[in-house]
Design goal:
The structure holds 2 protein chains of 2 kinds. Chain A is mainly α. Helix content of chain A is 76%, strand content 0%. The two termini of chain A are 24 Å apart. The model of chain A has no long low-confidence stretch (mean pLDDT 86). By secondary structure, chain B is mostly helical. Chain B has 15 helices and no strands. Mean pLDDT of chain B is 86; it is low at 1-5. Classes of the chains: A mainly alpha, B mainly alpha. Chains A and B meet through helix 1, helix 3, helix 4, helix 5 and helix 6 of A and helix 1, helix 2, helix 4, helix 5 and helix 6 of B.
Chain lengths: 285, 289
């Protein structure tokens, strides 16, 4: 998967030597995006704001909806912190060290991208479900349950978003000029100082971009969470599962209101990530 | 020659200093601690669940798993998933190429905003995607009167499922093709045009071959994502057994009905299928280099 998604600004003002009408191609492309992407997004905005912003706010702050949104946000935040630390470490180990099995490790990083999230949920239920050996043992020994609990949500999210930070940091780390580190070492800097002062600063942008992508992806996750955490209001019901319940019981106002909040969060995260990427590209050139 | 030897001398000197800030053993210890940490994290987080799925699916033996999959309802669900994904891949290959082309070659107002919006399906919840389509095409949807007059059913039918999958998989082909098109040297096209090639001929003979590998990768990613789509398809399709039930919806229903072997086997089959797809194209791509 390609995470470097922003497009470079116009460098060559070159017109392709095609006789076909530029406007025709542009029209096809834009109407395709309009039909498939923009109209559905606008419809949900229109539906949620139909009764006015006060009604929308009331729907969002209903106890069940509010709890679902808060649960979604804090599990996503915990996942993002863990994923950022482990993802950066993984990228560091993959770029800087050579050890047996490195190629295999590098291949495993991408597996979550290829596995349907519903299947991820099934995997975790098999591993930690109350009827299963490991799940039963954890419950008996520590009174600790993963399934139908926030822990399960965080685990599922960690699995799904693992590639994002790694694949965002790895290419930047590869291109780092190591002479700076050698120079710092020559001047007497210790390992930790070198890491903090020399290696970390250029990695800040890709780390933040990866973290934003993970967070945005986690806000909307449904397939794995509905399997792992079920649909227990005030315990393990996330925003996506809440919207699903409201759609099923035909509560259009509630479904639209929470959907809008989720779309708004996702949109601002992506726009911020896009802005950071464009800024870093400008800085490089 | 003299330059290389002097730079080599510098490297050796730097390495000499480098090893003084941490003596060799300590550095090795740090290295192996980090490697062990990362490898055990990946093993715990990613490998253990995958192995658990395989163990769970074959709990009653391979025969029981295979016979649980070899039932008309299950085969029908997998067949639905397969042809929906194929349609989606074909549509995205054609239109995704056009969109990537326009983004790379054209400049127009709003280009940056639309470029950002292309990533939205990646972050919008699948449930919300299904719900948006219900608002448009559902029983009380905005387009309901028109659809009724025309006698077309979109919600709780195949067209709705295809549209939901189209939305969810939108970014993959475009994001694979944009960097390839950006790296492509347009002088080749100019040369072809100079030699008298028409626009179609230039596209098929010059541009398309350069795009081919990006396209293959885009197709696999789109296909794998389409195979696994669940939330959007559940909301818009309703998972009517034997009709709009796809492979993922079957897994969900089987879990609900406590047919565990069937659910686990189907999950393993679906997971393996997309794994083979993605890893296969990855392997092809690496072998090409």
């Amino acid at each position: 998967m390609n995470l470097q998604t922003s497009i470079t600004p116009a460098t060559n003002k070159y017109n392709p030597p095609f006789a076909w009408d530029t406007w025709g191609v542009r029209f096809v492309a834009l109407s395709y995006l309009m039909l498939l992407l923009i109209i559905p997004l606008l419809v949900i905005l229109q539906d949620g704001l139909k009764e006015g912003p006060i009604e929308l706010w009331r729907q969002v702050t209903l106890p069940m909806a509010w709890h679902a949104l808060r649960l979604t946000l804090w599990t996503a935040a915990v996942m993002t912190v863990l994923n950022t630390v482990m993802g950066t470490l993984t990228a560091f180990v993959l770029v800087r060290y050579s050890f047996p099995g490195k190629t295999i490790l590098n291949g495993i990083i991408d597996l979550p991208l290829a596995i349907p999230t519903l299947v991820t949920g099934v995997m975790l239920v098999i591993l930690f479900g109350p009827q299963e050996t490991l799940g039963a043992w954890l419950k008996e020994q520590f009174d600790f349950s993963v399934i139908f609990a926030p822990t399960g949500i965080i685990l599922a999210l960690l699995f799904i978003t693992f590639p994002f930070v790694v694949r965002s940091v790895q290419p930047v780390l590869m291109e780092l000029d190591r002479t700076q580190e050698h120079a710092a070492a020559t001047l007497g800097a210790g390992g930790w100082t070198i890491f903090r002062r020399i290696i970390l600063p250029p990695l800040t942008l890709p780390v933040i971009t990866g973290a934003l992508l993970s967070f945005a992806r986690a806000i909307g996750e449904f397939g794995s969470i509905v399997i792992v955490a079920g649909n227990i209001p005030f315990v393990s019901q996330t925003a996506a599962v809440y919207v699903f319940g409201e759609v099923e019981s035909e509560n259009r106002l509630g479904a639209s209101a929470v959907s809008i909040v989720m779309v708004a969060i996702a949109f601002s995260m992506l726009m911020f990530a896009d802005y950071l990427r464009r800024r870093s590209k400008k800085g490089n050139s | 020659m003299s330059i290389t030897s002097s730079s080599r001398a510098k490297t050796i000197q730097a390495q000499g200093f480098f090893s003084t800030w941490m003596d060799g053993n300590k550095r090795k210890l740090g290295k192996w601690t980090l490697i062990t940490l990362v490898v055990s994290y990946v093993a715990f987080l990613i490998l253990t669940p995958i192995i658990a799925l395989a163990v769970g699916a074959f709990e009653r033996g391979i025969g029981a798993s295979l016979s649980s999959l070899n039932e008309p309802g299950v085969l029908r669900a997998f067949w639905n998933t397969l042809w929906i994904s194929l349609i989606v891949v074909i549509i995205h290959t054609i239109f995704g190429t056009v969109v990537a082309w326009v983004f790379v070659r054209h400049r127009f107002p709003g280009r940056n905003l639309i470029n950002g919006l292309v990533d939205m399906p990646f972050a919008v919840s699948p449930v919300v995607v299904g719900y948006m389509l219900l608002l448009l095409f559902g029983r009380n949807g905005m387009l309901a009167p028109m659809l009724e007059a025309l006698g077309i059913r979109v919600a709780f039918a195949m067209p709705g499922i295809v549209m939901a999958t189209l939305f969810v998989t939108l970014p993959f082909m475009i994001r694979e093709l944009i960097p390839v098109l950006e790296a492509f040297d347009t002088r080749q096209e100019q040369a072809a045009a100079t030699l008298g090639a028409g626009s179609w001929q230039t596209f098929w003979r010059v541009t398309f071959p350069a795009l081919r590998w990006g396209m293959i990768y885009g197709v696999t990613l789109t296909f794998a994502r389409a195979l696994g789509e669940f939330g959007a398809v559940l909301v818009i399709g309703g998972g009517v057994q034997g009709h709009t039930e796809t492979a993922t919806l079957f897994i969900y229903r089987a879990l609900d009905e406590r047919q565990y072997i069937g659910a686990y086997s189907a999950a393993l089959a679906l997971g393996l299928f997309s794994l083979v797809l993605v890893l296969g194209s990855d392997w092809l791509r690496r072998r090409r280099r």
